[in-house]
Amino acid sequence: MENLFLVCLVPPVSIVEDIDAIRNYISEEFNVYESLKRPAHITLYNPVKITTLEMEERFFNTLAFATYQDSFMQVLSHFGSFPSHTFYLNVVQNPGIMNLQAQIKTALKPLKLLPQTDHFKYTPHLTLAFKDVKPPVFEEIIKTFKDRKFKREFLVSGFSVYKHVNKRWQPYKEFMFKNPKDNPKILDLFS
């Protein structure tokens, strides 16, 4: 048994349709297709390979503890890049998304699913083109979008887990937020 999972935020369908229109335009105009192999998403935890049923169960049980969070508004605003390989939609940093990502990372850390060297600074983004983008094409994409505007916002009230099946990422499980006051891990001396 070997499964690959991705923990992420997926915007509402209407916003995904707008994002997919941009991704399709980039693919057709610049002959880059790698980003179309993935759903439009904001990664919260890097993809992880799980090889046992026991570890898979621990993974999902642990994620359930990261659901004690208040809903928040998430804004996608304009374009950005990681030079010279990834072009993306900016995901505006706010306490909601930063706390959610930190909560998931902290909850899953004891499972040792990621290498110990994984100390990256979390920069939330929604990828539009990457991997098969060569530097000259990257520059053309940047030039094409430098004056274009994009802004959408949506309510985040949970997160998703996608599973890699038949070379495609498929929705697998949804985790809806629960009231933080109901978190059994929080002890209150006065309750």
Question: What would you say this structure looks like, in words?
Answer:
Helix content is 29%, strand content 32%. The protein has helices at residues 13-30, 53-64, 95-108, 135-145, and strands spanning 3-9, 42-50, 72-82, 86-91, 125-129, 151-156, 158-165, 168-176. The strands form two sheets. The chain has a four-stranded antiparallel beta sheet with strand order 2-1-7-8, with helices on one face. A four-stranded antiparallel beta sheet has the order 5-4-3-6, with helices on one face. The mean pLDDT is 93. The N and C termini lie far apart (44 Å).
Q: Helix/strand/pairing class, anyone?
A: alpha+beta
What is the CATH class name of the domain at 3-72 and 95-128 and 158-182? Answer: Alpha Beta
Low-confidence runs of at least 5 consecutive residues: none
Shape descriptor:
globular
**CATH fold node name of the domain at 3-72 and 95-128 and 158-182:** Cyclic Phosphodiesterase, Chain: A
Average pLDDT, rounded to a whole number, is 93
Provide the spatial order of strands within the biggest beta sheet: 2-1-7-8
| SS elements, strand count | 8
Beta-strand percent range: 25-35%
What is the H-and-E element order? EHEHEEHEHEEE
Q: Say which CATH homologous superfamily of the domain at 3-72 and 95-128 and 158-182 is assigned.
A: Cyclic phosphodiesterase
Protein name: 2'-5' RNA ligase
Keywords: Ligase
GO molecular function: ligase activity
Organism: Pedobacter psychrotolerans
